[in-house]
Amino acid sequence: xxxxxLIGMSNAEFDNLIERYLRRGEQEPRDLESxxxxxxxANFATAPAETTIELNGEWRQGHLVLKPAQPVPPxxxxxxxxxxxxxxxxxxxxxxxxxxxxx
Amino acid sequence: xxxxxxxxxxxxxxxxxxxxxxxxxxxxxxxxFAEWTLVxxxxxxxxxxxxxxxxxxxxxxxxxxxxxENSFADRYIxxxxxxxxxxxxxxxxxxxxxxxxxxxxxxxxxxxxxGPESRLLLSYWLFWWEMFAEGYAFExxxxxxxxxxxxxxxxxxxxxxxxxxxxxxxxxxxxxxxxKTSVYFLQMGRVPGMRYDFYIxxxxxxxxQRWMVVLMQLVAWRKIDGDTEATTWDxxxxxxxxxxxxxxxxxxxxxxxxxxWKTRVRQRQSEGE
Lengths: 103, 273
Known about the structure:
The structure holds two protein chains of two kinds. Chain A has three helices and five strands. By secondary structure, chain A is of the alpha+beta class. Chain A folds into two domains: 2-46, no CATH class; 55-95, no CATH class. Chain A starts with a helix and ends in a 12-residue tail after the last strand. The relative contact order of chain A is 0.07. Chain B is of the alpha+beta class. Chain B contains eleven helices and eleven strands. Chain B has helices spanning 14-26, 33-46, 60-82, 86-107, 110-114, 118-148, 161-164, 182-188, 218-224, 236-239, 258-270, and strands at 6-7, 50-53, 56-59, 154-155, 170-172, 175-179, 198-205, 209-217, 229-231, 244-248, 251-257. In chain B, the strands form two sheets. Chain B has an eight-stranded mixed β-sheet with strand order 4-5-6-7-8-11-10-9. In chain B, a hairpin with a 2-residue loop joins strand 10 and strand 11 (251-257). Chain B is globular, with a radius of gyration of 21 Å. In chain B, 39% of the residues are buried. At the A-B interface, helix 1, helix 2 and helix 3 of A face helix 1, helix 2, helix 4, helix 6 and helix 8 of B.
């Protein structure tokens, strides 16, 4: 299957692929062409400046594990019980419910 | 249990695997806008891929942080800051570190442990390393140029991980801005949009010609002010070096050529804002 090219190739072919990738990267300019750049900027500018990210949580072996319900921006990292966004890291600690706190 | 030691997210399809291969095999210039979107989707999905490691099951994202970022990021930044001509030297510096990542992957026995799907782990590491290396090379280039050009600005501290994770990259005239490669705008997609007052970026025109530009919110532009030429995104490049103004879904966004932006900022700063 074509989708399996990376998995199906021999070790030598894979090494060769990586070497080509590295050699090309040493020479090829990275910047996007104007058409793709402005398509991307238009898309970016369309989005709201603020967005709501929903997180789903579950207990795994006694630890809270949070997972975003949809893709998150690259500068937001959600891992276990921590949420990192530029300038902030939130650590979520949940106390076991006590009878008095049950609403 | 997967016999390979790698668990891919169920939504990671053949199309995702194909575009990862194409990225490595043919390079960025071969990618259409739609393929770029798929590239970011693919590597985003691989964040959640799980590998069977000597320390238990670990996500690709977590392995990138422990194996690549913790080992190489601070050293790369230090080396970048040692370069005389960052524009000319960063690509060979990137390649030197990328080769070290390749050697680490092989030397640590990931291929034997995880099987052929370990190649997706290496692809993931190399992709995000390239994004990191390119992004900070551009930042260093811009910060050096602003300093040389006598523009007053406050950069964030890129030496440490904590400093690099500051909310924005620099402060000019009390405005908050980011220095971002053109690929960043593809990476960000639609979530979330323009949060800062301005973005310094760069793109190519007809292959060879390079343009450095500043995208500004209208409120930021008003601090500098001047005539603008109304245009659309598909004609924005043609408006340069005049200041282009694009009305986008009821919002005005200003595109200024970088040298002109610096001149106007300096002028404002010499007037004491």
